[in-house]
Amino acid sequence: MVLTPHANFDSPGQMSPTASSSTSSLPHTAASSDSYFTTGSIGPSAPRLRKTSTSSFSKLSEFSLDPPLLDEKDRYAPEADPELRTNSLKGIRHVALSVDASEWRHPVFKQKVLSILRRLRVPLWSSDLLTPSSIHLQKVSGALTNAVFFVTYNPSPDPTSPSESPLLTPTMPASDPAHPPPLKPDQYPPTILFRVYGPSSDALISREEELRILHVLNTEYHFGPKMYGTFQNGRVEQFFPSRALTAKELRQPNVYRSVARRMRELHSVELRLIGYEHGKDTEPMVWRCIEEWAASAEPVLDTLASAGGKWETWVENFGLHRLRKEVDTYRRWIEGEPGKGKGVVFAHNDTQYGNLLLLDGDLPPNQPEHHRYIVIDFEYSAPNPRGFDIANHFQEWQADYHHPTLSHCLLAHGPYPTLEQRQDFYRAYLSVEMDGREEVVHRRKDVLSEKVNALEREVRIWSPASSALWSLWGIIQAEEQVEAIVSKKEGYVLEYDCLGYAEGRLDMFRDEARKLGVLS
Predict the structure, then answer these.
(1) How far apart are CA 326 and CA 115, in angstroms?
(2) In which residue ranges is the amino acid composition biased (Low complexity) (predicted)?
């Protein structure tokens, strides 16, 4: 069957979770400050590259709510007029505005969101009948790199208070029969995702590269959400009616087998189509990321050490210089290890439970049950060995990012998958055979034990690399936490202990490397 993992949910009532969709763009107008983000034709790089400041945000006066530049018939159309489209491969609509995610509970935040949606000409969100009170805003808890919000239509005349949603479950407020909304039900705008990039995320992720990959995945493979456009420090994207998995659900056989099959499908994406000209012979991006993330982590650690006392000791114990040497020793060992696997695949690199969704509604006829599950958030995706991607997923079995006190710790919750669970996962993964875009699913019991054992070896070999990488991620993400420590900021509320996470992942790297005989 053809690989079509998601639906176009833009049109009210459309519920086919495997219908294909494509990204559409509207023409640029010279009188506007908006512009197109050009994807470019150069080859891709590691999923990080630049460090920019997001400390300067647009003024409220810049968020105009003037009527949108759309004809009446287009304001309510589920898709933009085809005559207004340009070649979608050329770019994505962009507005030169930035928002401060920390003010999301303030009423002006809704005005800013609506202004951006209008200027991006997001279908059904461009009506001048909509006001900031028409927005019901929910912040997705557990999102670590970015601040992510559900933007849902509020048919009630009364404004709603912003709230948090733990598991990607947006809700629409009830309407008031005594005060009907100005829009008809078939004109209600769909729920969308409004993503504000984290202040330190540009040290980790090349946003241009991320958008280019998302665009190709969506238009060529029908993977991932449609991009409605970008703003200075974020983007607006399609939402799939669904909910995120829970940490416990990852351990259910029917769930992890489905995840394994979806991962196999993703690993079949042609790397050259994504822009990696060497295909499977591309160097694993984990090495480049570790090198570059270590460079970005260094000034954060230097700042933390300047606090003196226990924090100076903490930095010394972390030992960035030592980590670099250990990773170099580990890499040289892997490169001489025959069981490391052949080449690389297009890897997601972050399949934690919050990035795995269970679609609402029924599947179309002849679609396999595992197509009910989809993966989102491709910001860390890049060529890596399949063993690395699977090992990283297994590490995430130990996470609980919604725990009230230990959300940063991977060793205080569920255990690492057992050998029996891992072998079951491998058999589901290897039962999927991809012939171009066509998918054939075989019986798990028919998978040869030799292939299962070989994949287990690949996963064990690459597992320490996952912890080394995410340990450095924790340091970079701790920039705000470190600034609060050094300045002794009063009233600072720690939402996520990035330093504790970094410390824990570093211990996991060293422990696994010792068990492999790489480190003493």
Answers:
(1) 49
(2) 16-33, 161-173
Q: Which CATH number fits domain 35-238: 3.80.10.10, 3.30.200.20, 3.40.718.10, 3.40.50.300?
A: 3.30.200.20
Distance CA 382, CA 384 (A): 6
Q: What is d(CA 146, CA 417) in angstroms, rounded to the nearest whole number?
A: 28
Query: What pLDDT, in 10s, does the model give residues 468-507?
Result: 999 999 999 999 999 999 999 999 999 899 999 999 999 9
d(CA 383, CA 432) in angstroms, rounded, equals 20
- Spatial separation of the C-alpha atoms in residues 48 and 285, rounded to whole Å: 10
Three-class SS of residue 96?
Answer: coil
Q: Rounded to 5 degrees, what angle do the CA atoms 501, 239, 473 make?
A: 20
- Fold for 245-515, please state it: Aminoglycoside 3'-phosphotransferase; Chain: A, domain 2 (3.90.1200)
* Spatial distance between the Cα atoms of 194 and 147, rounded to a whole number of angstroms: 8
pTM: 0.77
CB 38 within 8 A of CB 90: yes
Distance linking the first and last C-alpha atoms of the chain: 49
Contact status, residue 356 vs residue 317, Cβ threshold 8 Å? no
Cα gap 221→293, rounded to integer Å: 30
Strands 91-95, 163-165: pairing is: unpaired
C-beta separation of 501 from 409 below 8 A: yes
Give alpha helix (H) positions in 280-366.
285-305, 309-318, 320-335
Domain 35-238 and domain 245-515 have a common topology? no
What are the tokens at 91? 């770019």
Residues 49-73: tens digit of each pLDDT: 333 344 478 888 788 776 544 444 4
Encoding tokens for residue 293?
């993330």
Amino acid at 290: I
Distance between CA 175 and CA 178 in Å, rounded? 9
Long-range CB pairs of 443-451 (<8 Å, 24+ gap) are: 444/257, 451/426
Sorted by where each begins, the domain ranges of the chain are 35-238, 245-515
Q: How far is CA 389 from the centre of its chain?
A: 15
Are 127 and 76 in contact by the 8 Å Cβ rule? The answer is yes
